[in-house]
Fold this sequence. Notes:
Layout lengths: L17 H17 L9 E11 L2 E15 L2 E13 L2 E16 L4 E17 L5 E18 L4 E11 L6 E11 L22 E12 L6 E14 L2 E12 L3 E16 L4 E16 L7 E16 L4 E11 L6 E11 L1
Antiparallel strand pairs: 1-2, 1-8, 2-3, 3-4, 4-5, 5-6, 6-7, 7-8, 9-10, 9-16, 10-11, 11-12, 12-13, 13-14, 14-15, 15-16
Amino acid sequence: xxxxxxxxxxxxxxxxxxxxxxxxxxxxxxxxxxxxxxxxxxxxxxxxxxxxxxxxxxxxxxxxxxxxxxxxxxxxxxxxxxxxxxxxxxxxxxxxxxxxxxxxxxxxxxxxxxxxxxxxxxxxxxxxxxxxxxxxxxxxxxxxxxxxxxxxxxxxxxxxxxxxxxxxxxxxxxxxxxxxxxxxxxxxxxxxxxxxxxxxxxxxxxxxxxxxxxxxxxxxxxxxxxxxxxxxxxxxxxxxxxxxxxxxxxxxxxxxxxxxxxxxxxxxxxxxxxxxxxxxxxxxxxxxxxxxxxxxxxxxxxxxxxxxxxxxxxxxxxxxxxxxxxxxxxxxxxxxxxxxxxx
Length: 343
């Protein structure tokens, strides 16, 4: 997790550099703005940024959100929330929320409220190295006002309330911009996504490289690589098997195998895909410092977000953000990009 440097709203991620986050999210925004294809299989994607209060102090907050309609008055959302830098707490994580929504003014203006579990990771003071990675489940409650433009862009303001047993609890006000990945049949949000009959993914082999950032108070970083085999199991479900190598000098070096299940959607005439995955990460060996004897055979969790762009029938580019969740305060983020082959 990030260090205690000066809080700045321009800093968009706690565990990665600004350029690292742009490498992850940039293709999504570019594709959303540049492509206006008719066939799609997803709904809305949005980025948020704003201010947050908790423990009597102020900091920044950011989030990105995918939302899919369950009908005119309901939706399901997947969010990654970052709660900035509170004293002794650098916290973020994913949440799945059920939303109720009320379209007004010819469906251009929509009021909505959502609630769901928040699976957080928190870097706090303590532990033998002066910090520790704390994990748990809290609640994320949100209210939102959104205006839908005629060209599929969405202007939004949102209030978040995070409740954590033992605290700290936080309140954030965020402003966002979103894009309708499904072309709506009428103004406002689409009630349900377009259906499909085939799988999003066939078979893919991808080689990736990038940066790994240890979730500590110093945010040490280094080089990482991985190779991935991906296969579509069902229409919206993929499975991957990966080999991963992380090397952060003087902090952590880890090699391991991962297996994940993914929820995957394709849009813009099958050119762009978004996916969220989770699964176990078996570290063959882990070295947490110079001269370390290493830890053999540890199993951690791996939470991932990924986007791919299909360049042709066989070739694609992919960018992935992996969060390694450990029980030994060796959490890390891997931000990687690479090229793959479809067959």
